[in-house]
């Protein structure tokens, strides 16, 4: 909305303030076109420059806006009217979009353009296949790997870089810097065990990290 009214542009930096334990990576597949990437993260102990190069959304994604939201937020109505006059697609969530065809207008069925929110599509099946889900079986249980003894001045980008260099990138990284630890989530126990073996002896700076399956770490 701020882009639509000219209050911000793609050069405007995005800053957030959180606690150190709230800093975490989000898998790319969870992001949608309307999600805003953060440029700077301020915590009680540091300032983190994310270096994210993901494009910022340039305006309102009208297909995410419902009729109910339009009624509750009056400014949306005026913005929609303005963009409609400019020739932009302002089709709302649940509306049929009309596409021109030679000699006539034909409504495109809703099912052809968008799926109901809870209906998995082909990309969902592809994601499970990419994560190694055996055919005919349920989704594999994710397995967490514990990484401890992180240097006090370590940043999440340091650990991410080391993981990439070793070819052991997790589905999700949960950073707990104040506790000098992090948790890595892998698609299944076999991938987690392989990561533990691969990361043995990993060093950040002068410190050798402790790496183990998270379940084993809790049992100690």
Automatic annotation (TrEMBL):
InterPro entries found in the cross-reference section: FTHF_cligase, FTHF_cligase-like_sf, MTHFSD_RRM, NagB/RpiA_transferase-like, Nucleotide-bd_a/b_plait_sf, RBD_domain_sf, RRM_dom
Molecular-function annotations in GO: RNA binding
Keyword DNA-binding listed: no
CDD domains according to UniProt: RRM_MTHFSD
Region Disordered, residue ranges: 84-136
Domain of life, per lineage: Eukaryota
Entry keywords, A to Z: RNA-binding
Pfam families, A to Z: RRM_1
RRM domain sequence ranges: 143-216
Annotated PANTHER family: 5-FORMYLTETRAHYDROFOLATE CYCLO-LIGASE-RELATED, METHENYLTETRAHYDROFOLATE SYNTHASE DOMAIN-CONTAINING PROTEIN
Protein name (database record): Methenyltetrahydrofolate synthase domain-containing protein
Organism field: Macaca mulatta (Rhesus macaque)
């Amino acid at each position: 909305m701020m882009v639509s009214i000219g209050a911000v542009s793609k050069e405007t930096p995005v800053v957030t303030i959180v606690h150190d334990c709230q800093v975490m990576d989000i898998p790319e597949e969870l992001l949608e076109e309307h999600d805003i990437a953060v440029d700077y993260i301020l915590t009680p102990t540091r300032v983190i420059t994310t270096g994210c190069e993901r494009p910022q959304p340039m305006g309102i994604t009208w297909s995410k806006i419902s009729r109910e939201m339009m009624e509750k937020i009056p400014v949306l109505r005026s913005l929609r009217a303005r963009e409609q006059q400019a020739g932009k697609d302002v089709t709302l969530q649940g509306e049929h979009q009309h596409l021109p065809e030679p000699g006539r207008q034909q409504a495109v069925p809703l099912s052809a353009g968008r799926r109901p929110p809870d209906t998995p599509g082909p990309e969902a099946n592809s994601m499970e296949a990419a994560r190694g889900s055996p055919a005919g079986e349920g989704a594999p249980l994710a397995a967490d790997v514990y990484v401890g003894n992180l240097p006090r001045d370590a940043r999440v980008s340091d650990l991410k870089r080391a993981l990439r260099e070793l070819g052991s990138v997790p589905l999700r990284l949960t950073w707990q810097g104040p506790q000098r630890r992090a948790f890595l989530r892998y698609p299944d126990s076999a991938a987690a065990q392989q990561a533990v073996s691969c990361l043995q002896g990993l060093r950040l700076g002068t410190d050798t990290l402790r790496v183990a399956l998270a379940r084993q770490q809790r049992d100690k």
